[in-house]
Amino acid sequence: MKYSKKTMTKLINEHRELHDELKKIKKEMGLEKNLAIKALYHSAVANSGPFMQEYQDLERLQ
Fold it and tell me: In terms of residue numbers, what domain contains 27?
């Protein structure tokens, strides 16, 4: 599975908890949005994360 900012952004927009987590990552780590999205991908999607299946479903639709 490959990281896609477009797919990750769609996933974040569909799930309020991911949106809140993104804001938290940006604030706590002082990251800009693009890096925070990538960090969220690695924590919530990659390596059998809780949102991996939904991410894969969005990837197939593109």
Answer: 5-61
Phi first, then psi: give them for residue 25, nearest 5 degrees: -60, -45
User: For the chain, what is the domain count?
Assistant: 1
Q: What is the pTM of this model?
A: 0.91
Q: Which helix (H) or strand (E) holds 40?
A: helix 33-44
Q: What's the CA gap between 54 and 57, in Å, rounded?
A: 5
Whole-angstrom Cα distance, residue 18 to residue 42? 12
pLDDT in tens, 8-56: 999 999 999 999 999 999 999 999 999 999 999 999 999 999 999 999 9
The answer to whether the CB of 55 falls within 8 A of the CB of 7 is yes
